[in-house]
Amino acid sequence: MIEPEVKNKLRFEDPLEPVELYLDGKKVISIANITSDSNDQKDFTPLNELISLRTLSLNCTHLNLLEGFPTLPKLRRLVLSDNIISGGLEALANAKLENLNHLDLSNNKISEVVVLEPLRDLPSLKHLSLMECPITKIPNYREDVFKIIPQLDSLDDQDR
C-alpha cells in the first residue's frame, strides 16, 4: 500500500520531465512500493519510468529495503539518509547507476564495512556519506571504506 501523499508526488504527465524528485518525510518503506504500479488505474508514475531523474531524495522515509531499485541512467545524486537501511546495497549496483556521483547513507543502520562492498561497482561514485551510522564508531573505518571503494574522493564530507 502506498500513501496518497506519495502517489501525488509521483504523478507526472510526462515521465521524462522530472529531473529531481524529493519524497523526504513520506512513508515509503520499500523501493518496490514506488517502482511499479500494479493497479490498472495508473494513479502514479512508477519510479522506474522516471529515467531523466538526476536527483532522488528519499530522506526520512522509513526505507529499509532497496531491492528492485530501478535503472535510472542519469541519476547523479541519491539521498537515502535518516532511514533504517542496514544492507542490501547490491540493489544499487544491480541497477547499473553508472552516473551516480553522490550517495548519502547518513544516519542509517550500516554497521559493517563489508556491507558497502557492492558500491565498488558504481564507477562514478565519488562522494559517500555515512555520518551517524554505527560503522563510524569502528576505528579506522575510513581507511577500510576507501580500500573497498577505491573510486571515492570523499567520505563523510572529508577528502581522501
TrEMBL record:
Gene Ontology annotations for the cellular component aspect, listed alphabetically: nucleus
Pfam families: LRR_9 (PF14580)
Keyword Cell cycle: no
Keyword Methyltransferase: no
Top-level taxon of the source organism: Eukaryota
Molecular function as annotated in GO: histone binding
Protein's UniProt name: 7696_t:CDS:1
Annotated organism of origin: Diversispora eburnea
